[in-house]
């Protein structure tokens, strides 16, 4: 069960209508290393990991939905006042033809989201290493997005999200250490 | 689509205060999952949880329900479904 809070995790401000920026930000909405993939990956893996690390997967998975909502808000605000001509100019003609200005889970190149982006191996170390890699890839993507963005308000929100990837990666690394420690303890008897 | 430029300055002030306190709570929650014996962090978590409840009650009273499903009081006509939604402000 989840309870919705009528607020974003961190304020999202956008200086002006700019569908060009929305086109590449959508990578973190429906891309391989995006927030949807992250949320679904962790919340699915949590059923079969050891009790000691379920809380981490549960809570980080939950936070990812707050990040998904922040990215959606960025895309929505960047495109809501755009004319069909501006959407076309921004390279969003394919998106516009199918979705108007509705959001859709696809990456920056328009490829729809797929469950093949994520894995659940049933092996906690394998799953946690995938999770660490996912966070590092998302962090790198956020850096590229920040580098390509000239809107200072938008950069602020993207920097917040980049920093969260670093914390999540750290927590997953700690999970690996916790499981290794437990395994070592079992050998000594 | 409705515009919500008429929201008072106090809405944004309280929202930001809530976001700041909730950020501390999310950070501590993630930290405590891997550092469960850190007494100072547990105490900090519980102190901020109290602060969060105070701010939430203030937000509920001034700007309508912050949470759904019975976690915030609602008014007539049903205030939960009223804009603004987070992506509109």
Automatic annotation (TrEMBL), chain A:
Its cofactor is Mn(2+); Ca(2+). It comes from the Bacteria. Keywords: Calcium, Manganese, Metal-binding. Signal peptide: none annotated. Pfam families: Mn_catalase. Mn(2+) binds at residues 35, 64, 67, 135, 168. GO terms for molecular function: metal ion binding. Ca(2+) binds at residue 59. The keyword DNA-binding does not apply. InterPro entries: Ferritin-like, Ferritin-like_SF, Mn_catalase, Mn_catalase_dom. Binds 2 manganese ions per subunit. Binds 1 Ca(2+) ion per subunit. The keyword Transmembrane helix does not apply. Belongs to the manganese catalase family. This is CotJC.
UniProtKB/TrEMBL annotation, chain B:
Pfam families: CotJB. InterPro entries: CotJB_dom, Spore_coat_assembly_CotJB. Residues 13-88 form the Protein CotJB domain. This is Protein CotJB domain-containing protein.
